[in-house]
């Protein structure tokens, strides 16, 4: 069977957006290749027929359901390897995020398959997939093709949009997988909520955004205090989200959210084009940056050249004094 196999991660009866993006992208590409779009799901009793079949809405025609531990990479590697070996899919495609990276890399090692990571775009050329990924700190793009099959594509987090296609319900096929001994050595102890899950930056009239200039994750505590005093929300650049300093839900830009608040205060943000597209429609942009040549000074309304670690505490102090 030629086609594209994706992996769909679920939690509490719903598939995550990043996975739905992968399923949707896989379906689009499979149609262009003239092959089948299918997905693998791994989990317990909450993987009902109805939930699995719902992936048809995103273009999957078949869903291979494997009963096993959910949210862990190695059992998914076992499941995907088995389905690919038995059904001969040409490509495996993953959304980004930690699990996508771990499963995709593990599958590549297991099947000795070529893998391209951090992919931002996939196209079909001469009947084969070509994956585009940024390199050299995102300053250039590289196109990679695959030699042999399967080829493995791992997207950047949310690189693929989840598009509903009015597809028919997917056919659900149960697959028994004998998990490898090493795949059973990890178990899920606890699942926690991400910090900042309640941030609603899209509705905020005031946004205080932080970038790599904060120097370390703790820098966000200062911004949270400032935002609280101003009645605003905290946002972040991709650089700091990728570094794990702040949750993805707060990322502004091309691969994050688009906002247009009354005030956007950017601290330690260079103003890269991919960030700018997410906040350029803000009514007032104020930038604090120690580099007078930072690109953000070319499009902000008020630019402050200086060290944010000196300026932000002064702002906090002044606002506190006004409150008292
Ligand atoms: P940097 O570019 O490293 O800038 C840090 C800034 O802080 C510098 O200008 C520095 O002068 C200043 N600074 C340092 N110390 C201090 C200090 N003490 N006081 C004051 N200023 C200081 N980026 C996004 O933000 N959102 C996206 O959605 C996004 N999507 C992308 C999609 C693609 C396909 C690609 C290729 C890139 C994307 N990027 C995105 C990344 C983007 O290109 C930049 O790399 C990123 O925005 C840079 O983040 P930054 O400004 O925090 O870091």
UniProtKB/TrEMBL annotation:
Cofactor binding description: Binds 1 FAD per dimer.
Gene Ontology process terms (BP): fatty acid beta-oxidation using acyl-CoA dehydrogenase
SUPFAM superfamilies on file: Adenine nucleotide alpha hydrolases-like (SSF52402), DHS-like NAD/FAD-binding domain (SSF52467)
Keywords: Electron transport, FAD, Flavoprotein, Transport
Domain Electron transfer flavoprotein alpha/beta-subunit N-terminal residue range list: 4-192
Cofactor(s) this protein cannot do without: FAD
Gene3D superfamilies in the record: HUPs, TPP-binding domain
InterPro entries to which the protein is assigned, alphabetical: DHS-like_NAD/FAD-binding_dom, ETF_a/b_N, ETF_a/FixB, ETF_asu_C, ETF_asu_C_CS, Rossmann-like_a/b/a_fold
Signal sequence region: none
Coiled coil ranges: none
Residues the entry annotates as binding FAD: 212, 237-238, 251-255, 268-275, 289
GO molecular function annotation: electron transfer activity; flavin adenine dinucleotide binding
Record has Flavoprotein as a keyword: yes
Highest taxon, organism lineage: Bacteria
Record text on subunit structure and interactions: Heterodimer of an alpha and a beta subunit.
Family to which the UniProt record says this protein belongs: Belongs to the ETF alpha-subunit/FixB family.
Function field: The electron transfer flavoprotein serves as a specific electron acceptor for other dehydrogenases. It transfers the electrons to the main respiratory chain via ETF-ubiquinone oxidoreductase (ETF dehydrogenase).
UniProt protein name: Electron transfer flavoprotein alpha subunit apoprotein
Source species of the chain: Thermoleophilum album
């Amino acid at each position: 069977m030629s086609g594209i196999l994706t992996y769909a991660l679920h939690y509490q009866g719903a598939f995550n957006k990043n996975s739905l993006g992968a399923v949707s992208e896989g379906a689009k590409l499979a149609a262009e290749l003239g092959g089948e779009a299918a997905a693998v799901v791994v989990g317990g009793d909450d993987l009902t027929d109805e939930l699995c079949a719902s992936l048809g809405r995103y273009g999957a025609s078949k869903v291979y359901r494997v009963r096993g531990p959910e949210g862990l990479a190695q059992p998914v590697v076992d499941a995907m390897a088995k389905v690919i070996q038995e059904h001969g899919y040409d490509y495996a495609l993953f959304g980004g995020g930690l699990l996508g990276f771990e499963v995709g890399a593990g599958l590549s090692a297991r099947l000795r398959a070529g893998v391209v990571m951090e992919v931002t775009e996939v196209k079909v050329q001469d009947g084969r997939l070509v994956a585009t990924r940024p390199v050299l700190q995102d300053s250039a793009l590289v196109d990679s093709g695959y030699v042999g099959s399967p080829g493995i594509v791992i997207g950047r987090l949310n690189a693929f949009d989840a598009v509903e296609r009015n597809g028919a319900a997917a056919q659900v096929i149960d697959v028994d997988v004998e998990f490898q001994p090493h795949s059973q050595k990890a178990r899920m102890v606890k699942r926690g909520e991400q910090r900042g899950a309640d941030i609603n930056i899209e509705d905020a009239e005031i946004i205080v955004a932080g970038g790599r200039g904060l120097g370390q994750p703790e820098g966000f505590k200062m911004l949270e205090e400032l935002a609280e005093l101003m009645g605003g929300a905290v946002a972040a650049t991709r650089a700091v989200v990728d570094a794990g300093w702040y949750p993805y839900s707060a990322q502004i830009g091309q691969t994050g959210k688009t906002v247009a608040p009354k005030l956007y205060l950017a601290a330690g943000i260079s103003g890269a084009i991919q960030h700018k597209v997410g906040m350029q429609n803000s009514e007032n942009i104020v930038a604090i940056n120690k580099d007078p040549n930072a690109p953000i000074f070319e499009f902000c309304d008020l630019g402050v050249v200086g060290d944010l670690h000196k300026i932000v505490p002064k702002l906090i102090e002044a606002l506190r004094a006004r409150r008292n």
